[in-house]
Automatic annotation (TrEMBL):
It is found in: Cell membrane. Signal peptide: none annotated. It comes from the Bacteria. Belongs to the CorA metal ion transporter (MIT) (TC 1.A.35) family. Mediates influx of magnesium ions. Alternates between open and closed states. Activated by low cytoplasmic Mg(2+) levels. Inactive when cytoplasmic Mg(2+) levels are high. GO terms for molecular function: cobalt ion transmembrane transporter activity; magnesium ion transmembrane transporter activity; nickel cation transmembrane transporter activity. Keywords: Cell membrane, Ion transport, Magnesium, Membrane, Transmembrane, Transmembrane helix, Transport. It is a multi-pass membrane protein. It comes from Acetobacter aceti NBRC 14818. This is Magnesium transport protein CorA.
Amino acid sequence: MFLAHRSGQPACAVVTESDTHGAIWLDLVDPTDTERDLAAHLTGKIIPQRSDLEEIESSSRLHTDDDAVYMSLPLVQRTEADLSSSPIGFVLTPNWLVTVRFSDYASFDNAARQVAESKTGFSSDDTLVMILECIVDRLADVLEHVGLNLNQLSRDVFAGYDPKGNIRLASWQRTILRRVGHAEDFSSLIRDSLLGLDRISIFISENRKHTLPHGLAARLATVSRDVTSLTDFVSQLSNKIQFLLDAALGFISIEQNDGMKILTVVSFIGVAPTLIAGIYGMNFKDIPELKWAYGYWYSLAAMLVSVILPLLWFWRIGWLKTDNR
């Protein structure tokens, strides 16, 4: 999809060159080769493909070509059930801003709405800074969502396993670890987006070939400060995720130790009666109790006592309590 944005007007689809008359922002959404070629013809610049935007080295993500500035970053997107990330690209020229993306983003929708509702004209620099501001605002909302999920995860971890629930212990443990892993994935995706934004803001502010007006430079500095504060927040979330992972593994270890205690008790109380039964089951002629009338009941009583005494001892030290958390 190829969209053209004009100040004070809604976005319109671009089919021919005349559809871009008066537009300052050209938005390519999962573009076809035909749409990419049309944008390249209109701007006179190379429009990057997805493989170009997915390069990880800084020289590929941030560079200039004559009067055009090429920038890209991986941008995280939150859906109802998951987070995902895909690359977005910017081609900034004195007359045009071209964005290349492969998914719908709420931040771009918000920026398009501001352009459509604006009563004053936008330049390509204005549009770029506004989009970056919208992206930062959206990432802040996503981080709030991730923080709330982490708070719920923390409560679930420290509430512990509920044996009265419908979920088994092993399933509960796997669910907790899976949620911790997903939280770390989300944090990593957001961290990558913030790192890309920070690099873009620094690259633009230090680019001598394309200098921003003073007002836009101040707004870009504010974006940079917001990115720094969000990066610090992500670091706190990462520390909390690591803490929750350690706590979850610790509780799992405790549960496993409880299981080993039961096995130890069962093994221990089985040794003494087995020994007694083995002694009185030996086939020797001169066994003292061989002809004793109460020998059978005596051996049963001895085995019973050898079971009861260890059980009482294990109960006293707390190994047999139903809840020892």
